[in-house]
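Late entry, nicotinamide-adenine-dinucleotide complex.
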Amino acid sequence: MENVPLAQLISLKGKIAIVTGGAMGIGRGIVKRLAEAGAKVLIADFNHEAAQKTAKELQGNGWVVLSIKTDVGNEADVKKMIEVCQEALGGIDILVNNAGIYPPEPVAKMSGEDFEKVMHVNLRSVFLTTKYVSEVMKQQGRGGKIINITSVDAIHPSMVGLAHYDASKHGVWGFTKNSALELAKDKIWVNAIAPGGINTPGVAAMQGVAPQADAETLKKQTEAFMAKIPMGRMGEPDEIGKVALFLASDLASYMTGEQVVVDGGVLLS
Ligand SMILES: NC(=O)c1ccc[n+]([C@@H]2O[C@H](COP(=O)([O-])OP(=O)(O)OC[C@H]3O[C@@H](n4cnc5c(N)ncnc54)[C@H](O)[C@@H]3O)[C@@H](O)[C@H]2O)c1
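Prediction complete; structure with ligand written out below:
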């Protein structure tokens, strides 16, 4: 095993990947690195227009990237996503559960629907995709990789107003560990990546849509968060893409049930 050349270890040639929420932001960064490493990628995203645009752009590099409109918390959509991946690309070797939402709302103002919406997209999705994709991986008999995008909020809260989000991300981290335990016998490795602050359309929108009364508070919280980053800057989607490539490749052949923090050091402060 130690004699495998580096280029072969990092290659995803012949592999097929699904990246949820891959139309933009962190997901797009992940799609790019997996495709560059040779994987055929299906982007499963609720925003189909953006997903089609991203797929088309990346196809320009000679990469195989397709897209399908999917609500990752909807069981029928997840089953359809898997069917399309099998039919169009020939199987599934890598699943990246990246789709997620983080609408800021203090608990005092949060409705039951607000709470459930976040659980639907961030947590129920991970259960559904893991259940049905691992079934396919077992049938294929060649193992697989599942990578769940959590957050530093799965470890420590980053700001007030994300209690529902933090609950969902702690949930995904717990789900990651237990499903890693269950699936190891089938050579399916399940790991998580916990990003810190990353420059994405979602983060920009969070600041843009804040209710007027809370905009100043949100601005102050963002400034306070920035001041706590030892590296002195936000991360870029590609900085998560590179770690996802590591976990999806044979470079991470002896890792499962682990959470890799990629946060510019923010949890240190
Ligand atoms: N950006 C950050 O600072 C940061 C930090 C920690 C964790 N994360 C996590 O990274 C992931 C991506 O975040 P981002 O900042 O790139 O977000 P983003 O909003 O920029 O992009 C998210 C993508 O997910 C898609 N999506 C939303 N709901 C969906 C659904 N129900 N079904 C399918 N697709 C759906 C959106 O259409 C969009 O393309 C999320 O899980 C988020 O919690 C982000």
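The CA atoms of residues 130 and 264 lie 29 Å apart. Will revisit in the morning.
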